[in-house]
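Issue: copy button drops trailing tokens. Both records pasted manually instead:
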Amino acid sequence: MPWKKILCPIDYSEGSRRAVEVAARLAVESNAELVLANVFSPPIYYVVEPIALPPSVVADLVSVAEEGLAAWKLEALKLGATRVSTTLLRGDPAQEVCRFAKHDDFDLVVIGTHGRTGLKHVFLGSISEKVVRHAACPVLVVRTGD
């Protein structure tokens, strides 16, 4: 099936790197637009009440995330994808990926997974699993070769 618009959420992990490789290859084969997205969720600390990070720290974290997206965009371009853009989303990763994919009419989401099982999966959950369950378009899950 020729894809027109592919979303590849990344968290800068090895699983994401593999997903970008696959997404770039599919974009080349279909002459599709490829959008790399990172979901930024600033950490909130709890002592008694929730404590948010100072705005200057959040700005620094956003800057680092944007620099990472720019570097991964260069990688996708080196892999042959010609129409590559990036976006930084904010919020819950699975919810934001699904919302963005639906809102911007993506044909496909290519997402990496860590392949955790057992207790690690129970405690850490699976963003890719949530995306598979809730996305409005097809989702291709790329596993690391561990």
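Record 2 (pasted manually too):
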Amino acid sequence: MYLPDPRLYARVNAQNPIIRLLMSLLTESSSEVVKQKREALTTLLADTLAIQDHAALNAAMTQAPSLDAYLELWALLRNTVENAPKNAEHYAIPFAIPVILVAGFKGTTELAGQLSDVDAVLALLKQHEVISPDADVWLSAKLVHAETLASVNPSQLSQWRDQLQYASGGLPLDLNTSPMPLKDEAVFLRYLVGVAMQKKDAAPAIKLGGNLGAWGMQLANLIGEQLKTNGVTLFPIPRTPMPWLTAGEAGRETQLETRLQLMTSNALRSIRSKGRTPVICIAAHENAEIRMTFSTLEDKERWEGFVWPLSAWDHVEKIHQYAVELFRECMVTDLRIIENVQPNMDESDQLPFFVTAHIPAVVQH
């Protein structure tokens, strides 16, 4: 049994030209016509990007009438932003490296908001040919917030791609950052952002995506050394360089997975140390969240909750599968999947509603 998807989607807006063409594409059965309609939609997206009409793009994304429709449109938009026009002799590639920082400290402290030697990171990436040794590339030392990354819309990215002439000037973006406040435990998400200049028909200036490879541990160690803070246990988890929009998705997913791993470990250790039997409940809720609780058969009062807010591109079944596999690996035998969507709030006290071993799911008619 899989969790239901609690998200509500808009009705098809035939007045929106992007949505109209998208739905025509998704309902077409001829493979040849599908190809033609996909090319037409790509052209429409490129034209919308060219005139910097982010409002039109945002309206289409928010009006996608289903998950499949959203994912199709999002994939086409990403490809349109990330691929340069055919006649471009050179173009810029804005990129980001997601970095998860798992930190622990007895008390309160803070981690630095930027690296002390970003040139060492750049040298490592060039050594392993992630970045071409002779490429014109700039990498910021600042550890950028996810909110800053998300503030750059596809229209701006396409403008950077077409108008930036040199990497040395960096990106036209305020990369304000600040120290990361740490109390006990935290899982931070930050990004190293940069830009690479690509010449037409030349070897790739930067390799985007794929697996970390042997250099991943070296990068993690390098980041850990530069952020070393007295008394802090720190485990950096870097990802590969990625296109800007893709990096936003990947970083968020990795952070949530890591937070769930950490909470699962801590909660189960606490429950089992008391000789109690863990019960984990997973439920989808009306405000587009997946909520998981860690409770016990023996104690009605004490439980802990984890919330996974659903983004527009999240697959509920993928989150379900990841969580179940994690809990099974942790030898949890009492795992309860709630088959119907649960309310957001508890009507009795107007607090967020969670299903536990002793708080039954609401059966909605």
